[in-house]
Every structure is written in structure tokens, then in C-alpha cells.
């Protein structure tokens, strides 16, 4: 049986504090690496101005990749088809039923809990998270700003998968735009990690759920480009939900916001488009080819890299590095291990008997099978990096027990008690999961940051 990974982190004022840091390499040029403390990071695009230092909110990317995506951002002839309502006409604050009004607040916006008007004021009422969109920046016109709001909303609204947050409505209130979405009761994974309740089976299940959600996005022509702990929410049923599409990319097919798509993603799929050079995402999770800013890149490979970093962060209790650059000691050692491996074996694929030796952090992963899968996802050459589909088909990932259904078409096979000889017993049977990663009940509502896109990753 695989040994347990290092202890999970304890809470400090700046984020996670590693109880058991990985020992430094004896080589003096790689002295005192350690795992980086996890701090909240805002995502950003290099084309946009950073947010105020005290704000956890930021701006979405200015434009997508490819001629059509860029044209959609600036050409008024291709208007987005969006139904907009007044927030106060359809929704009312959940404080009316004794719930707290706000569940997240930053310098530029808030996230509130609301319910539909006319609903019964009971504990069973469906609740929604309402994210107030950030204010227009000084670098964009009102028309550009509105198109970005509608672009993010229509992408999110077109998605239908158990591991992606359901988007409900686009509303206006007091001159601000609001996205109404599914309310995930347990809050974001970053905050849940701070509570130190996850075991190995739980982390593996969460990882597999994220891979399923990202695979759905890629198969429908959308790259998220900002997978991180803060953009993953959990429901009371243990489902992991990907949220925040402020920097997402329609890399293939029609944008879900144009009339020809009829509000559906994955329409008109053809040749994929590459993203223009420029940093997008949150620095600890950004792949090296994106950080280089010297070439067009495949945005799906950025998501693959980010998912690999996500698993490392959950398992080791901290970011392996704050940036995939040679100036970072841990990344330098990781890259040195990869270069030595590639010099020795060339194009030979990673297998049971052959994989890079990338330092003590990777040696601390639970098993060789886990290490091989994650290293395939973290190949420094994006052309040779595995796809999300490859990761899901990895032998280790395939056998991970997952407590959520696989896709929107999945059904549960029921027991036909009429055809059994012990129907009384069968009728009382309940299928129990072998693991339960739900945290203990809490009296306070979870906090959501919903960082919305663009700005530099800050480490105070």
C-alpha cells in the first residue's frame, strides 16, 4: 500500500505553512528549496492593467485566440445573444430567510446568496451565488467592457457538466453586472484545504473530478486557462465544480455567444486555434511556454500543466514553485531532471521502468504510478505533454474511485426489487461510498473569492 504523503499544512496569516518541508539538495546551487507557501493568487492577462493591491478581483482577458475570437471582442457586427434581466425583479436576498447576505467581499465586488422571488421562505429553498462583475477599467470603452461581460457569461452559460458550476442568469443592479450561478455550499477548495481534512483517497477523487470537467471543456472547444484551488468549489454532495471563466478561451468552433451557436458550446468545431503570446492565469500554475511570452501556444496544454500543479499542491500542501522559471530553485531542479532524462533516452516515452528524476518533491509523491502520470502532465515541452484525455486514461487515474457521476448522461442502475427473492432487503439497501471527503459541518457560511481574471499574482 502506498505511504501517506507529508502532513497537510496548518493555517497562518499568509496562507499555508508547511509542517514538513522537503529537505534541500546537497548541491549548493540548489540550497534550501522547500515547498512554496500557498497564498491566494489572482489570475491575469498581460494585456490588461493589474487590479488594486488590496483587491482579490481582477479583469478578464482582453481577447481570445484566433481571428474570429479576436474579431468577436471588437467587431460590433457580431453582437452576443444574451437575455438580461434586473436582479431585483427576479431575485431577493437570502437574508430574507435568515441567511447571511454576503459570502465573499473584495475591494471591487461582492458575492451574495440570493433566491428567486416568489419562492417559499424555507430552509429547502434553492439558493444561488450572485457574483458582481468587476467595474470597467480605464483602458476599455463601455462597449468593450459589456462585450467582455457577455462573453464570459455566454461561455459559462453554455456548459453542462457535473463538475462545472451551472450558470443561471445575467442581471443588472445599480449599474453593475451580476452573474447568477449555482451555489456550492462548501465553498472553494483553497479554504477547504486550510481545514486539513483531506485524505489521499479524497485528493485523488477531487483530482479526477477536475480532469473530467476540463476534458469536457476541451472536447467542446473551450480552454479554462486558470485552473487553481481558488477556482474549484465543492457542494454538500462532494462534487467539485470548476468556476470563473474570465480568462477562458474559445480555441475551436463558434463562440457560444453568437447566434449561430444557439447558446451551445462545441458548435462548428474545426481546426483548433492557438493563443497569442502573453501571460494568462495565476503564476504558480502557469506553464513555462506561456510564461516565455515568445510564441503562440496551445491553451489546452496550459490546462494540463495547471492540473498537474494542482495535484502537487494538494498532495504536498503547498505550491512546488511560485513560477515555472529557471530563477526558481525548485523549478530549476525539476527542469534539470527532465533535461538529463531527455538527453539519455530521447523520445522514449515514460513507462514503469523509465521516468525523470526531478528531486525530492516528486519522490515524495505517493507511488511511482502517481509520479509517472504527473510528470507526463508536467512535460516541459508542450508538444510532448500528455492531453487531459491521456491523463484520464492513465492506469492510475482509471482506478481512482470517484464519488461523482462521470458525465451528464450517466445514469444509476437501480435494483429491480420485483425480480429479486429478497426484495424487502433490497428495498432497504443503500450504496455507501468507500470514502467521504466532506468536511465537518460548520456554522458559518463558506467564503468565496471568485477572483475574476486579470491582474498580477501577488504574494504579500
UniProtKB/TrEMBL annotation:
Binding site for ATP: 131
Residue stretches of biased makeup (Low complexity): 43-60
Gene Ontology cellular component terms for the protein in this record: cytoplasm
Signal peptide range: none
InterPro entries linked: Kinase-like_dom_sf, Prot_kinase_dom, Protein_kinase_ATP_BS, Ser/Thr_kinase_AS
Annotated segments matching region Disordered: 1-70, 433-460
Record Pfam families: Pkinase (PF00069)
TM annotation in the entry: none
GO biological process: intracellular signal transduction; microtubule cytoskeleton organization
MF annotations from Gene Ontology: ATP binding; protein serine/threonine kinase activity
Alphabetically ordered keywords of this record: ATP-binding, Kinase, Nucleotide-binding, Serine/threonine-protein kinase, Transferase
Domain named Protein kinase: residues: 97-397
Family under the similarity heading: Belongs to the protein kinase superfamily.
Protein's name in the database: HAL protein kinase
Species for this entry: Cladophialophora yegresii CBS 114405
Amino acid at each position: 500500500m502506498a505511504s501517506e504523503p507529508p502532513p497537510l499544512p496548518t493555517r497562518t496569516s499568509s496562507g499555508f505553512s508547511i509542517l514538513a518541508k522537503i529537505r534541500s539538495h546537497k548541491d549548493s546551487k540548489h540550497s534550501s528549496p522547500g515547498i512554496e507557501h500557498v497564498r491566494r493568487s489572482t489570475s491575469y492577462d498581460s494585456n490588461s492593467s493589474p487590479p488594486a493591491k488590496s483587491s482579490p478581483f481582477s479583469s478578464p482577458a482582453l481577447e481570445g485566440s484566433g481571428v474570429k475570437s479576436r474579431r468577436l471582442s471588437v467587431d460590433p457586427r457580431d453582437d452576443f445573444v444574451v437575455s438580461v434581466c434586473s436582479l431585483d425583479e427576479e431575485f431577493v436576498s437570502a437574508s430574507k430567510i435568515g441567511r447571511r447576505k454576503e459570502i465573499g467581499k473584495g475591494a471591487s465586488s461582492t458575492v451574495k446568496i440570493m433566491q428567486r422571488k416568489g419562492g417559499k421562505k424555507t430552509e429547502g429553498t434553492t439558493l444561488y451565488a450572485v457574483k458582481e462583475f468587476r467595474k470597467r477599467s480605464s483602458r476599455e470603452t463601455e462597449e468593450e467592457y459589456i462585450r467582455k461581460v457577455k462573453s464570459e457569461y455566454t461561455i459559462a452559460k453554455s456548459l453542462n457538466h457535473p463538475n462545472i458550476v451551472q450558470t443561471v442568469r445575467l442581471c443588472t443592479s445599480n449599474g453593475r453586472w451580476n452573474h447568477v450561478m449555482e451555489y456550492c455550499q462548501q465553498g472553494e477548495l483553497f479554504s477547504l484545504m486550510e481545514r486539513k481534512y483531506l485524505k489521499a483517497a479524497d485528493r485523488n477523487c477531487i483530482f479526477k473530478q477536475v480532469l473530467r470537467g476540463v476534458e469536457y471543456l476541451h472536447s467542446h472547444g473551450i480552454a479554462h486557462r486558470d485552473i487553481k484551488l481558488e477556482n474549484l468549489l465543492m457542494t454538500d454532495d462532494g462534487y467539485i465544480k470548476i468556476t470563473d471563466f474570465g480568462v477562458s478561451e474559445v480555441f475551436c468552433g463558434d463562440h457560444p455567444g453568437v447566434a449561430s451557436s444557439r447558446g451551445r458550446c462545441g458548435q462548428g468545431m474545426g481546426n483548433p486555434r492557438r493563443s497569442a503570446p502573453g501571460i494568462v492565469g495565476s503564476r504558480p500554475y502557469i506553464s513555462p511556454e506561456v510564461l516565455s511570452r515568445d510564441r503562440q501556444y496551445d491553451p489546452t496544454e496550459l490546462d494540463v500543466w495547471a492540473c498537474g500543479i494542482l495535484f502537487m499542491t494538494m498532495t504536498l500542501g503547498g505550491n512546488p514553485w511560485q513560477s515555472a522559471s529557471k530563477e526558481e530553485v525548485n523549478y530549476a531542479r525539476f527542469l534539470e531532471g527532465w533535461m538529463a532524462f531527455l538527453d539519455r533516452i530521447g523520445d522514449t516515452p515514460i513507462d514503469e521502468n523509465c521516468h525523470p528524476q526531478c528531486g525530492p518533491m516528486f519522490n515524495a509523491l505517493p507511488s511511482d504510478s502517481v509520479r509517472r502520470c504527473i510528470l507526463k502532465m508536467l512535460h516541459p515541452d508542450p508538444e510532448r505533454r500528455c492531453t487531459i484525455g491521456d491523463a484520464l486514461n492513465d492506469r492510475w487515474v482509471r482506478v481512482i474511485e470517484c464519488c461523482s457521476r462521470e458525465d451528464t448522461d450517466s445514469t444509476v442502475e437501480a435494483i429491480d426489487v420485483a425480480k429479486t427473492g429478497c426484495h424487502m432487503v433490497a428495498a432497504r439497501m443503500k450504496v455507501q461510498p468507500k470514502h467521504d471527503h466532506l468536511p465537518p459541518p460548520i456554522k458559518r457560511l463558506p467564503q468565496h473569492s471568485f477572483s475574476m481574471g486579470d491582474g498580477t499574482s501577488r504574494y504579500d
